[in-house]
Amino acid sequence: MLETYLSWYREGRMDESAFRAVTNQLAQSGLTVEHPTLGCGMLLDVAGEQVKLPVQRILELIGLSVGPLCMQFWMSADTDVVCDIRYVAPDTQVLTFVLGGLTENERKPATDAVQRLIQRELDRTVALLVDLGGETTDEDDDALVLFDRLPMGPRPDRVQFRTDRLSAVPAVLAGAEVTDLGNGLSTVRW
Questions:
Q1: Are 101 and 88 contacting, i.e. CB atoms less than 8 angstroms apart?
Q2: DSSP class of residue 122?
C-alpha cells in the first residue's frame, strides 16, 4: 500500500446484520455506505471503477464473505474513504480504510469514526494498524498482527492491540514503546 491507511483486524467474519451494525456505527460518525446524492452504494471493480449497487446488496455481499471486496464510504457527495475488505487466517476479517487523498480536516473525522467503531467492537478487535506513510505491505501487516513477526522493512506508525492480548505478541513488543490508552487498547510504537 502506498497511502495513509487504517487496518482494523477483527475476529470472526461479519454476517449481513453484523456488517449493518458496523455501517450504522460509521454512519453516526459521518461515513455512510449510501452516496448522499445518488442514493446507492459503490463497490470498486478490479480496475478501480465504481460499480453502483443498492446498499442492501453491498451489505448482503459482505455478509456472504464471498471474497475480498472494495467499497466506498461517503463523507460528502465528492469525498469518500475507500474500504478494502479481506479475510485472513482462519477467521479474521480485515477492513482497511484508505485515507490517501483526504485533507487533514477530512482525515481526522474519518480516523475518529474508525476509533469509535473499534471501541464499540472492542471484544472482536484484534488490532488497528495506523500507517500514515503507507509504507508497509498487507503481508507485513498480517505477519505482525497475526503471527507476532516484525516486518523486515518499514513498520506501521503505530499499532493498537487490545490491552488484554498484549501477552500474545511478545516479539512485537520487544524494544517497543507501549502506552496503555485506558480504554481497553494499548498503542505500540517502535
A1: no
A2: G
Residue with cell 490517501: 100
CA pair distance 53, 40, nearest whole angstrom: 6
How does 117-147 read in b/e, with b if 16+ C-beta sit within 10 Å?
A: bbeebeebbbbbbbbeebebeeebbbbbbbe
Grid cell, residue 131, equals 500507517
CA angle, 132 then 114 then 48, to 5°: 65
Report yes or no on whether pTM surpasses 0.90: yes
Per-residue tens of pLDDT for the chain, all 190 residues: 346 899 999 999 999 999 999 999 999 999 999 999 999 999 999 999 999 999 999 999 999 998 899 999 999 999 999 999 999 977 899 999 999 889 989 999 999 999 999 999 999 999 999 988 777 778 889 999 988 998 887 888 899 999 999 998 999 998 899 999 999 999 999 8
Please enumerate in sequence order all residues whose Cβ is within 8 A of that of 161, keeping only pairs 6 or more positions apart, or say none.
126, 127, 169, 185, 186, 188
